[in-house]
Structures are given as C-alpha cells and as structure tokens.
Design goal:
Elements (H helix, E strand, L loop, with lengths): L1 E7 L7 H17 L4 E3 L21 H13 L10 H10 L2 E9 L8 E8 L5 E6 L22 E3 L2 E5 L8 H8 L5 E6 L4 H14 L2 E6 L1 E3 L10 H4 L6 E10 L5 E7 L3 E7 L3 H5 L32
Parallel strand pairs: 1-2, 2-3, 7-8, 8-9
Antiparallel strand pairs: 1-13, 3-4, 4-5, 6-7, 9-11, 10-11, 11-12
Helix pairs in contact: 1-3
Length: 312
Amino acid sequence: MTRIAIVQEPPVFLDREKTIEKAVELVRDAAHKGAELVVFSEAFIPGYPTWIWRLKPGGDWGLSEQLHGRLLANSVQLGSDQMRPLLDVAKEMRVTIVCGIEERDGDTSRTTLYNSVLTISPDGTVQNRHRKLMPTNPERMVWGFGDASGMKVVDTPVGRVGSLVCWENYMPLARYAMFAQGIDIYIAPTYDSGDRWIRTLQHIAREGGCWVLGAGNVLRGGDMPDDFPDVDRLYPDKEEWINSGDSVVISPDGEIAAGPLRKETGLLLADIDVGAVNAARRSLDIVGHYARPDIFSLQVNIQQQKPVSFND
C-alpha cells in the first residue's frame, strides 16, 4: 500500500515566497503522516486568479491590469531558484510532489503566463512540467496555450504518475494519450468542484482503470489579502466559500476511496494499492486489448512549440 496526501489549503494569496514557505511545511506534515506522494491544487503558487470569474469580460480594464501585474510579479520562473525550497523538502522528506504553479515564460517574451503543473522527484529535481493545453473561458485572458511536450506519464517510487489540469480532463483525446502511457495515478488539479465534477473523475478512473486524485482549490473571502484591489466589492463576505475544494481519491473501479473534502481545509490522506490498476484493466484496457487501432488511431505532437527559431 502507498499513502498519498492531497493538500486542500489556501495559498498565501498572490505571495509567491510565503506560499512556497507554506507548501514546504505542508509537505513536511504530510510526510510525517506517512505520505509518499503529496499533491497540491491548480495554480497553488501563488494562487488561482479567481477574480476572472467576477470581473466583467472585457471590462474593469484597469483593475484587471493591476491584478494581472501582481500575478505576473508573483509567478514562478523555472530558470530561477525560486522553487528551491520545495525541491529541497522533496529531497529531505524523500517524497514525490505534484504542484500547480503560475509559470512565467522565461524563454521568449518573458511576460506570458502558463497554468503549469510540476512533478518533483524525491531526489529534489523537476521531473516534468506540463502546461495546460487550453485555458477555459476567461482564463484565456490570463494564460497562454500549452503544448504536449510535458503531457507525460513518469515513473516515480509510488507508480507511474501523470496530470491533466481542470477542464483538460474533459478532452477525451488528452485522456487517451495519458492512458496510453500506462498511467497508475492520474492527478487532476482543478478549480472545478461539486458533484458533477466528482462524477467526471469517477468516469475517468473507470475508463482508464487507474487511481484518480482530484486536488481541489479551497478559498474563502477571508483568504484574500487586505490590500487586494477592490476587495470589498469583489469579496465582501469574509465567510464566503469562494471555492469549496472537493478533493477526492477514486479507485480504478470508479468508487470514491476518500473524500470529498468539502468546505474544509486540511490533508486528505489515503492508502492506495497501485496493483489494483492491473486487475481493473483485465476486463477493460481501452488502449490495449480493448482498442481497435485498425479503426481508430491518435497522433500526438510532443515537440515543444516556439513562435521563433533563431538559426546560427
């Protein structure tokens, strides 16, 4: 059995350094409780830009620019040493970490943000970075489009692990590409919540014959910083659950094994048997014995996409 922990805690909103400090302590806590895999939610560092669902689309231009500027200033540049504390604690505690971040492009324009998920190995290195392929609705005013260069399933001490972010999980071809890589633990960091979302994750677990970990965002009005612009208009109720979380662990047969953790904070711990994946796929392996490659096929372009190439 393998113990996993899903962290359902708010970030120190729009503060990269303090959120990373909080994440380090949460990893230590989870590891002391026996977790070998610690999972954080979508854009945990420094927080999901929740205001985009309350501002008028195309309106509130000055406020949107102000908030985006703050988000950009607190985003993560992977070429820097900003994530070093989280890498170090992974090595210290010998755990695998999967964490959502606001990633700032450091290669081309240096001002585009991506909704990214990092897989950090127990030796303290970034094992994979996946950028969300398609931002959802107003998210397209925040994030650039990712590519499939990081849409990988990687070997870890707890099994083969991969991630799709939020509504990427509604993309059947993206799911199929993950299943085709022999995924054991399918991680879905998300801003979505509620029973419909949980039923979606149950379907994915049954479809792929894999464990599914839904890592939900949790946030209350009181978690917004005092200097958040126009906070009294956008988030007047400090007790409001802006997002209820709903982190959940689902077994390969589609049954809920732990959670959902709803309208509360904490660690969702579960002991999972990765070997259950093999039993689940005996009768249904949609990329194996249940596939029909003579009729259907999928091609995935895993090259990193760049708008400019400088040739020497």
